[in-house]
What does this fold into?
Amino acid sequence: MIEQPKIVKICDIKDETPNAKTFFFEYMGHYDPGQFVMVWIPLNDEKPFTLSYINRNIAGITVLKRGNFTKTLHTKKIGDQIGIRGPYGRGYSLIKGNAATCIVGGGIGMASIACLADKQENATIVQGSRTMPELLFRHRYKEMRLCTDDGSFGYKGTTVDLLRELVGKHDYQKIYACGPEKMLYKVYELCNEHHIECEVSIERYIKCGFGICGQCDCSGQRICIDGPVFNSKDLKDMPDFGKTEITKSGKRISL
Amino acid sequence: MIEQPKIVKICDIKDETPNAKTFFFEYMGHYDPGQFVMVWIPLNDEKPFTLSYINRNIAGITVLKRGNFTKTLHTKKIGDQIGIRGPYGRGYSLIKGNAATCIVGGGIGMASIACLADKQENATIVQGSRTMPELLFRHRYKEMRLCTDDGSFGYKGTTVDLLRELVGKHDYQKIYACGPEKMLYKVYELCNEHHIECEVSIERYIKCGFGICGQCDCSGQRICIDGPVFNSKDLKDMPDFGKTEITKSGKRISL
Amino acid sequence: MTDVKLSVNLCNIRLSNPTILASGILGTTRALLKRVAECGAGAVTIKSISKEAREGHNNPTVITYEAGMINAVGYSNPGVESARIEFTNLKEIGAPVFASIIGTCNDEFVKVAEGLSESGFSAIEIPLSCPHTPGFGLLSGQGTPKATYDITSAVRRITHLPIFVKISPSIPEITTVAKAAEDAGASGITAVNSMGPGMIINIESKKPVLGFKVGGVTGDALRPIAVRCVYDVYKAVKIPIIGVGGISTGRHAIEMLMAGAVAVGIGTGVYTRGIDVFSKVCAEMKQWMIENGYNNINDLVGIAHD
Amino acid sequence: MTDVKLSVNLCNIRLSNPTILASGILGTTRALLKRVAECGAGAVTIKSISKEAREGHNNPTVITYEAGMINAVGYSNPGVESARIEFTNLKEIGAPVFASIIGTCNDEFVKVAEGLSESGFSAIEIPLSCPHTPGFGLLSGQGTPKATYDITSAVRRITHLPIFVKISPSIPEITTVAKAAEDAGASGITAVNSMGPGMIINIESKKPVLGFKVGGVTGDALRPIAVRCVYDVYKAVKIPIIGVGGISTGRHAIEMLMAGAVAVGIGTGVYTRGIDVFSKVCAEMKQWMIENGYNNINDLVGIAHD
Ligand SMILES: Cc1cc2nc3c(=O)[nH]c(=O)nc-3n(C[C@H](O)[C@H](O)[C@H](O)COP(=O)(O)OP(=O)(O)OC[C@H]3O[C@@H](n4cnc5c(N)ncnc54)[C@H](O)[C@@H]3O)c2cc1C
Ligand SMILES: Cc1cc2nc3c(=O)[nH]c(=O)nc-3n(C[C@H](O)[C@H](O)[C@H](O)COP(=O)(O)OP(=O)(O)OC[C@H]3O[C@@H](n4cnc5c(N)ncnc54)[C@H](O)[C@@H]3O)c2cc1C
Ligand SMILES: Cc1cc2nc3c(=O)[nH]c(=O)nc-3n(C[C@H](O)[C@H](O)[C@H](O)COP(=O)(O)O)c2cc1C
Ligand SMILES: Cc1cc2nc3c(=O)[nH]c(=O)nc-3n(C[C@H](O)[C@H](O)[C@H](O)COP(=O)(O)O)c2cc1C
Ligand code: FES
Ligand code: FES
It folds into this structure.
């Protein structure tokens, strides 16, 4: 395998929220929900994004504007080129049959679970954001349980608050989650309480993406290749989860 | 492919003539009669030899003692190690069915056609040497027409003399030959006269063996990869054949 | 099964086997060092530490190509103060841990070495040979015999730990540099760092792929160069050599030992064979030794020399 | 089909396409040069010629490994007198033919250049960069800026042909050497020769495989280093560059042109893709140019620079 960006043309762009856009491009090859690709803007930088759409040979990434890189990406127009390498990492493991599951997306974390939600049958989909305009993919699924911190739409409260209610009512065999790590940690604790298996996708600063540089460590697990998705059993041995992360320089900081 | 010697143990040695020995070793892989291998003696040198025997996983090379390398090789004992890489080059093309062919070996050139003679059905096998003790593989074939320059055994005269007689009597579809180039050239002329296709194996100084160094040139053909076996049609466009060769330094000399 | 001894004595440090995690690969956190030790490494090296924190170059920082890997991480590291907090209780790692220290001047090397002196490292490696980080290694002239001598002497003065000086394959005077390190009190030579630098251009975008444009070449591409360096350095110095460059199989490791290395570093191999490359290489070495009638790995060291 | 122009003007020599047979590969006889020209090379270079005949090193002289090739042919050649007899009627080769001359002192370079002056060569290449032949190239200090200047000047004085100075990838001061060549009157820079040297040890016999033990590394292993050298030299000199090192596909050739080469040499590619590598590379370049909207190969030269 050669780990180098392949240049693709942006063939469509969709505004998802005031601060998030989806960029579509031609994509060949395999993809498991939860895996990620490295997106390269020549002479600028290269950063990790989940595929939020995958359909025949067209994939999409949904990008929240944050710092230098995502701001530059947001200036790209249809026809512009970006580099893609990957997919990398270990995605979510789907459950076959019709056991009930719950899929929880917090903020832009929704992008990571979007393709999983496309595939996993019989799943309750929960999305939470701070406020209504930030909600993603509103018309994508047959049904989605929405919540906002400020109550501007749907359930008022966090995804964890809503999830706690749902867990009481349904017999979930597994709960999937992606979002801020504080949220993930609470989901993990909630699952432990109720003896439900959970799978969460963790973010860490990514450089190589293929397990060599050690940048993305979380308790000896490389997010980029051992993760980004980890299950309850993995998380039990990952004391850094929910506690500390490593910055670009390698400094350990509290989350 | 990696072009590097593989070390093998000499598992048997057979004295063929006072100056020629066959060394046997384990050999895996494909081999077409007429191809050659490079034989390496570490810290000494590495030179080309035809496989004169091939049987299940055991191959043999029959080596005439000449200069430094072959003398050193002749000191090797059973259990000693040598390096082998290859096989290289394009071998003889066999004729299917029962058309008559003739296979001619001159001197140690007999080693090159020995495996061909094992395989090609309905072939007259002719071997010539200067004198009787130099004759090879006397008991290997059902029938072999032998000649010696000095008349010490068989037909008195050269292989070409004998071949001329045979060609009058048989309807050969093809004549194969390996031996001194002067002999090969005469066989080629004889074949042209009688409109018989011929295939001869040519020797040139070999270095790389895989077509990169240009050492083994004969009129723009690389003996090591385009040959060592050439047919009448090839030879027509090879004015150097029978005339000049290139020494180790690259100097062109008359044959 | 025949008993085969893989353990090695490297400057009085006992390694259970001759494979060492090379610096800059995975050695960012204590947890990863521990994991690599569990994957069978005989010793592990931390990612190089400078006095102050460094973010390194922009991404892409590591890419691969047909013949190996090319990287310009740019010495990202949290600085010596944070490193001191990260790397504690090294005894529990399960294998000796080597520090790797960098600086832009003698004084910085000394400061970092002092900063890490109480941490329990088994040795200190000094790379003077990075080909792609301004201020360090080849790009600031640290690869010359004189600079090597000066930096090594300065660190030698303030520590009793074994010092390994890590040299570049991309300088003609490699043996002179190795000798300068030996003369200055180095305990061993690590040969080699990444080569080049090299550049890979993405032709569709017409731009170099690496964020820093150029980077050090490692892996298969480097192996024959590294073997030759070890072979030459073995003749030039008396101190032991850690052979690094393109090792990903037991055969590669044995080749490096035969050239003169006492132990081998593995970097790119973590990618090509996975994080358990260490135990794989050891198993392959063992297998080869059994088939070829050796029972002590140390008997292989330097036997390619006449 | 779109019209795509591959032809190149290299120091007023017209090449029908930018691929050139590198020196030392197949260029031993007139007949092989002709065959390579028929296989589509835009120009061909003869194997380097010295004053007296040389047998070169013992075999193995060329081997391959996972990442490329390693050779120590040792400049076997028939000497200038025989070469003069071999290389005649060069007009009929079908592509420009470049001489390659070597010597152990300025005077020998001059003698060989003079000896070949009436043969009809289109240019003279001077390799000062072989890593594995005592008396020549790196092993006799010809790769320094001063020696490069002296040798180039000496040859410049006695010929009006374009002179290409061929430099090593294995020296840190590559741009200084290129500038020295330019200052001395070189018409172009050939970058690069083989790298290293490197060594491959056969572990069963415990011996280096090459007859000379060490040899120059070429092919995929070399490509990123060669691209970087071309990129750097492009910034340092104004004369054109022939980019050599690891080129075996159209994409590789385009990468080299983007780094700053006007034409590309191909050596190891003759092994990896066959003797018709030249026409294959040209077809692939054309295809890529059509797909990416280019119609003149010269528009690619140096465009990876900001
Ligand atoms: C596996 C994975 C999947 C991701 N998927 C998505 C996605 O689908 N959509 C989306 O909008 N974002 C996603 N992200 C986060 C995204 O990579 C960052 O938002 C982006 O890198 C920010 O870059 P910036 O220069 O714009 O911001 P900066 O100002 O550099 O940083 C903003 C935030 O992003 C984080 N970040 C910066 N660089 C990286 C990096 N190289 N690796 C990881 N985190 C980084 C920083 O730690 C900080 O928290 C994902 C991250 C990971 C690890
Ligand atoms: C394709 C091929 C197949 C051959 N098969 C056999 C064989 O089956 N049995 C056998 O006895 N011999 C064979 N030879 C010839 C054999 O390679 C030489 O006899 C041997 O190399 C001589 O080496 P030396 O050092 O003993 O003799 P030297 O004193 O070096 O030379 C003696 C003769 O061998 C020739 N020779 C030397 N080195 C080489 C070389 N590298 N390549 C080609 N010719 C060389 C010389 O030109 C000279 O004519 C073959 C040659 C070729 C090209
Ligand atoms: C991604 C990466 C980062 C590296 N970082 C460092 C470093 O910080 N310090 C150092 O001394 N060497 C560093 N190196 C060099 C390696 O330690 C090693 O010398 C080199 O990779 C050759 O070994 P290999 O072919 O097994 O990878 C790095 C190499 C790679 C590939
Ligand atoms: C077998 C072989 C022989 C070579 N001989 C010469 C030579 O005589 N003169 C020279 O200038 N370069 C010589 N070279 C170097 C090549 O011309 C070229 O610079 C090098 O191989 C890099 O290109 P590549 O990667 O395409 O092979 C030789 C290379 C090989 C592989
Ligand atoms: S990002 Fe390099 S190891 Fe994960
Ligand atoms: S021996 Fe090298 S090309 Fe034939």
Notes: The two ends of chain D are 32 Å apart (CA to CA). Residues 8-305 of chain D form a domain with the TIM Barrel fold (CATH 3.20.20.70).
